[in-house]
Every structure is written in structure tokens, then in C-alpha cells.
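== Sequence, C-alpha cells ==
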Amino acid sequence: MDLYLDPRNLIMKWSKITNQTCQVRLAYPGQHLASIITGVKGRGTAARGDDLADGTEVKTCSRADQLSECNSCKSKVLVWQKECPTCKSTDINIKTDSHWIFSIKSEEELDLLLNKVPRIIFILFDRKSTNTNTIRLRAWEADTKNEYLRSFFEDYYYNNYSKKLKNNGYPAPCNLHPLKYDFYLMSPKLIFESEIDIDDRNIKINYWNVANPDPEKIPTSILNKEELKELFGPKISELSKDELKETLPFVPEEKKNELKMRKKIIKTNKQRYRRR
């Protein structure tokens, strides 16, 4: 109530008066929530030290109230607006692309993340669907010794950030998108899940286990056709999305190690680099 629901509802009320964004900045409240969920206190350092006393890094993002876009005229649409304020269209693109942001600007910062931080806790606020007024809060932990996690951040620093700097570019922070390919391959483990009903102010805790967290399975739905063919053979491409979800919803454990980092095109001021 204190850390999320009441601040969120207050800013929503004022958004309808001022027409300003109703997104709540959750970085510091997320650290409070991480302490409550894990039982580990912080060090009172804000963003200038360990988020938790055991060295854990905490990242928080919200997809619950993020800004959307009108498909007709491309104007921005606030979460409480049922039609576009510019053209009155009800064809709204409900955005769900908020992500966790990592600032890695030196080898020292990369080393700190991978070798001094024991784990990363990812906190996500979202909705099960666009038609519900129930907000879901989930938290996962990921071990920084995980091979894919380490490769992901090393790849960003050496093949994105450093190359852009050398070519007079302007590197963006490292973005990790929840519930996408890179996230699942970091072997995150669910430690907390709750549902917050905005209307009746009811909060239901569905899962809370820090001692023995639940490993997330990798949904086959996040794989592209080539990855599906490589893992399961050419016949898999004949299945529809619904058939795939029904017959093979998750990647079997013995197949996980066959998944590799995807190639990405990195744009700079002068040329493009292909990450391997």
C-alpha cells in the first residue's frame, strides 16, 4: 500500500487533472520492496553503492501504466484515456516495452557487476491483460555466475558500448527486456508474485519463496522459426502458434544449452557492426 498502490493512485488522480504522465518512478521503492521480499536490508547508499547489504543489484520496471500510442495518428495516449486525445480514435497500441536499464560505462563497472555482485533481482509490474485493472508484481533473482548473463553484458560492453565510443557514437545504456529471449536464458528464478486489485485495494500473494525459488521455464513462443527448427527439426514450423503452445509449451531442460545468443546489428555514426 505505502510503497506502490497509494503513490500510484495519487499520481493517477493528478494525471487526469494535469494531463501529465502517470508513470511512477519505481527505482527506490523497488529497492524497498526487494528488502521486504528477501529480508535483506539496504546500505542507505541510494544509487551509489550496494542496493542490498549482501551486494545484490536491484532493477525495477513497470509496464502497468506506461504511455501508449494511437495507431491512427501516432499521438501519445495516457493509460486512463480510452481514446486518442488528438484524433479520437480508439485504435490504441498498448505499449509493453518498458525494460530494465543497466549503465555500464567502463571495464571497472562491468567487473563490478559480474564479479562483485552475487545476484541481480529483477522486479516487474505489469498486467495479465490490457482488459484487467489488476496489476501483477513479480520478482526474480539471477545468479551473476550464469554463463549467458555474463556473455550478455560482456557483449554489450565490448561489442556495443566500446565500439560506438570509438566511432564517435552515443551509446545507449544496456537494455534488458522482461520475458524475452535474453531474460529467459539468464535462468531467472521466481521468488515473489502478487496481484494488486486497484479497484477494491485487495492484495493477494500467490508465491513467495526466497530459500527455494522456482526456476522459470523457457516458453517455446519466444523462439523464432530458425531456432525452433534447429532444436526440434523442420516439422515444428508446420505448427500454428496455438498448436505449438499446446504440444510443446516449454523448451525441454536437455535442449536449453543448445540455445545461443542472437546476432544483433549495432548502429554507429559511421557504420554498422554485427554482434556475434
User: Anything to note?
Assistant: The helical segments are 5-18, 27-38, 107-116, 147-166, 181-185, 225-232, 241-247. The two ends are 45 Å apart (CA to CA). Residues 268-276 have pLDDT under 50 and may be disordered.
